[in-house]
Automatic annotation (TrEMBL):
Keywords: 4Fe-4S, Heme, Iron, Iron-sulfur, Metal-binding, Oxidoreductase. Residues 117-130 have a biased composition (Basic and acidic residues). InterPro entries: NIR_SIR_4Fe-4S, NiRdtase/SiRdtase_haem-b_fer, Nit/Sulf_reduc_fer-like_dom_sf, NO2/SO3_Rdtase_4Fe4S_sf, NO2/SO3_Rdtase_FeS/sirohaem_BS. It comes from Bosea massiliensis. Pfam families: NIR_SIR_ferr. PANTHER family: BLR3264 PROTEIN, FERREDOXIN--NITRITE REDUCTASE, CHLOROPLASTIC. Residues 111-136 are annotated as: Disordered. SUPFAM superfamilies: Nitrite and sulphite reductase 4Fe-4S domain-like, Nitrite/Sulfite reductase N-terminal domain-like. Residues 20-85, 302-354 form the Nitrite/Sulfite reductase ferredoxin-like domain. This is Nitrite reductase. The keyword Oxidoreductase applies. PROSITE patterns: NIR_SIR (PS00365).
Amino acid sequence: MNAPSPDTLRRGWCPSTLKPMETGDGWLVRLHPPGARLTPAQLQRIAALAARHGNGLIEISARGNMQLRGVTAGSHPALVATLLAERLVDEHDGDGPQRLTLVSPLAQLGCHSGASRSEEPGIHEHDEASGRAGPLGASCIQDSVHGFRAQACGLPRNDGLGDRIDALALAAEIEARAREVSGLPAKFAVVVDGGGESSLEAFAGDLRIVATAPGRVVMALADRLWFGPLAESEAGAVVAQVLARFAAKRAQTPDAIRRMGDLAADELAALTDLPATEAPAARPASRRAGLFALGESHAALVGLPFGRAAAATLDRLAQASEMLGCPEIRLSPWRGLAFRGLSEANAIALLDGAAADGLITCDDDPRLSVQACAGAPACSRAEAPAMADAARLAQVLAPDLAAGLSLHVSGCVKSCARPGASDLTLVGESGRYRIVIGGGARDSAVATLDLSALLTRLQPGQDLHARLRAAGRLSGPTK
Ligand code: SF4
């Protein structure tokens, strides 16, 4: 296995297994498991590899991708060889995205007309021991959960998530067709939304498919223009046509066209032969953690605080899920893992154990409203310890975060964790934070403060709290 070239390792590259990205704590290696799903045994295996070949930290990105941190030039070849040999990743050689579709981890298999299209997982089992810690819940994390060792909360549930198409099967078809299209940007995103209660409206997409009726979908381009309706069975071919036309358009001026949103309205409309249509009605936001009833079985959706966990934590979680009979784990864009196919009692047991281990099991956990990058010391570009400070900020702002305030803590202006605007954005700068209200990392700051002053002035009755309220970024009674 050859080491990646220095050019491959440049920052800003969309990383993959074969093309890691250099960061402050070593190489970041992104994994794309086949079909975006894992068995508990596979998750244990990945945890063991993260500990052996990296620094033992595992992340799940806001695109539902898994990534290992702290890999080195010396450890990368053996890591890649093992991942490929054990079919833990599905890497292709093309120039486009390794995976471009985003599907809810709670999407129902075989919904409506696509019942026969869902593939069996083809999951590769193995039985190698993985350096296990004790059973989940037997020893709680002491150092990284920052006071959030809550119990699994009131366990609300959804009975019947109401998907109107087989979003998983459609996403698999789109992935297969997209591999035939060269010239797509590496970060191109296709959102496939089954139209049920697990809405993906919160995630931006270059192209979006939303089911509006059983077996019927509409399509959005750049989240601006809507087209359709069309049959679920035709959607894969229509998306492939759009991708091919976009790639051809982009080939004319690749530097000017990086994403679908760079095209004007008439250029977007020229990508499809479908008629324009109205945007579908907005749906309530999805729950991002907790217990879900999926037909006859249940799922436990567990979030990783700020998208990151120790390999040992995930190993304990995987072991527990295996003991509880979980057949399938899906990666969640809410930066966690969905353990599917469980009985209700076993899903609750898994959530209880995860909560005791410091993981997120309640939709109102304030950490779910915080986006934070690794920051210092993990990232060499960081000008502040973003992730560590995010935990303290989440505690101070817990009531406001639970009420809907969005907080982004970025170690520097590059804004890796969240490209867009938040109610409150904090940008690391020489050990302090630039404070942006209602904007992104490059917008004008209202002040620049160190963490201590920031924590004080964000308290009710202090000036920054008042400014957030005046900007309409806080709800609830004035204090
Ligand atoms: S935003 Fe965070 S992770 Fe990205 S380069 Fe800056 S400090 Fe590093």
